[in-house]
Amino acid sequence: MLTYPITLTPDTNGTFLVQFPDIPEAISVAEDETEALINGLDALEAAIEIYFDEKRIVPAPSKVKRGQPSVTLPALVTAKVLLANEMVSQGVRKSELARRLNVHMPQVDRLIDLRHSSKLENIEAAFHSLGKSLEVRVA
């Protein structure tokens, strides 16, 4: 799982500015800490989509300090982030991944679409085609 620390800065109108030190593009506002976590996840996912579009590595989260609020990406989103990062690291474009998987481009597009509910076995196959394996564990 990818857990990103957040900073909450009180604003002059009684709200909080929500920011992610590791992903500066992810910014939101909230009335309280509970709302900050919800809005923060939306902002984080939107920023990650920017990284995907620009074919940039999504930065790994820094360590969460004791008492610091944080946002954890859902497991499927985490898998998609790690897949996209591996593709960028290896210089593998979506068309090449589609060729390796023997699928059409829209299927690969869905593998790295955070809003699409991809099957885990398809993501696992994509990692395998990149010479990697996907491991799942319960903590």
TrEMBL record:
Pfam families: HicB_lk_antitox. InterPro entries: HicB-like, TTHA1013/TTHA0281-like. Gene3D superfamilies: 3.30.160.250. SUPFAM superfamilies: TTHA1013/TTHA0281-like. Residues 4-107 form the HicB-like antitoxin of toxin-antitoxin system domain. This is Antitoxin HicB.
